[in-house]
Amino acid sequence: MTSTLFIVNDAPYGSERPYNALRLAGALAAREGQQVRVFLLADAVACARAGQKVPEGYYNLELMLSKLLRHGEVALCGICMDARGMTEADLIEGARRSTLAELADWTAAADKVLVF
């Protein structure tokens, strides 16, 4: 099994970097023999906020992460959540609060690390 870690830093709708990261992560997670993990840092923690409302026809990162969670893991920097006033109650189902220590573990275990 090949393990890929995606580290996402940017705000959900400020640029297309989170969108492109999650598109690639989702495509990879759908393949046999792939382990995909996503760690959200800084403003990217808002990607996992439940109840996102976007204009019709616009991509929705909440839905993209929900699909990814069927095949992979999503964790968020707890300190980054605190700095933005987010709690675990704000998160989509399956995403969870985490630590830099876990990110370090995931990084050491990954075959590939992609940073967006």
TrEMBL record:
Residues annotated as transmembrane: none
Lineage top rank: taxon: Bacteria
Coiled coil, from the record: none
InterPro entries in alphabetical order: DsrEFH-like (IPR027396), Sulphur_relay_DsrE/F-like (IPR003787)
Record SUPFAM superfamilies: DsrEFH-like (SSF75169)
Gene Ontology CC: cytosol
Name the record gives this protein: Uncharacterized protein involved in oxidation of intracellular sulfur
Taxonomic source organism: Pseudomonas linyingensis
The organism's taxonomic lineage, starting at the top: Bacteria, Pseudomonadati, Pseudomonadota, Gammaproteobacteria, Pseudomonadales
